[in-house]
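Feature request disguised as a bug report, sorry. It would help if multi-protein outputs had a clear separator. Right now it looks like this:
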Amino acid sequence: ANKAEKLDNIKNGDKPVVLAKTFINGAAGFSFNYPDDFTVSEFVEEGGKIVLTAQNAKTGQGLQIYITAYDDPNFLVSKESILRDVPDMPVLNSADVVVDGKAKGVAFFSENSAFGGPTAEVWFADKKLFSQATASAKYVKILEEIIKSWKFTND
């Protein structure tokens, strides 16, 4: 089985993920769909970095997305660039991804104590925004479906 198939084989409690709501950030120029029983919160940190959380408070399911604007036309997200820039971070079972037909990046498994250990991650960049989406590895299916629904709206 290839890496993408391995990701698909991790079931989310065998229930299909239904993304009934849409989050839109018109200023930054993106939107994504998320489950009906999730709440999305948005914070802007110093320097303009956007932090999004999408979670179900009852079940603990959720994910976090850091979004940073950048201005380097040569900036690319790859397994190699992550290993170079964050050498202590495990990058396991990585697969190249393209989000909304234009943002290249990488999906991988890692470790993060803030998420209780194993994580599923999708990092991608679209020439303006660098996005780092992280969820507990057991919620990989929800993360995957949300990222598949991602749209860039400022082109």
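(second protein starts here, but nothing in the output says so)
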Amino acid sequence: KKKLKKYVIISYILSGLFLLIINIITLGVLGIDLIKIYTYPAYIVLKKIHVIEFINSIENLTVLMWFFVLMFTSSISLFFSKSCLIEMFNIKKKNIKTIITIIMNLLIAFLPLIFFSNKSFFDKPSSAIIPVILYSILFILYIYIIIINKIKTKN
């Protein structure tokens, strides 16, 4: 468990540094005004970088690295969310744990398709309600965790 925690922390730090470097380079090359105009400014910057003839542009490699960083952090977040739910509700049965894993995987797979069916959906003013809903769910979850924690400490 200690090695796993160490590797998780290292992976988050490396992912964060990778994203920070990309943001700094994008800001340095394009500037604030052009970043506001472009939909994907980091991709625009990476299209201009040429390494050698063999690799015409580095953007494909960087997008591939982004994909792996996203998949890695998503899978670790899913693992810890599932572990916290199982521990919070004190679930012992293996089939219920499997059901929780399946439900969380389906939610992660299909909620973005529902909330962000296309890029223009997020630009609409009606999409401002999504963060309110998500923060409300998070607030309710925190209250629930505090209540469970107080009940466990009384017993």
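Even a blank line would do. Unrelated, but nice: Helices lie at 2-37, 41-47, 59-88, 94-115, 119-123, 129-154.
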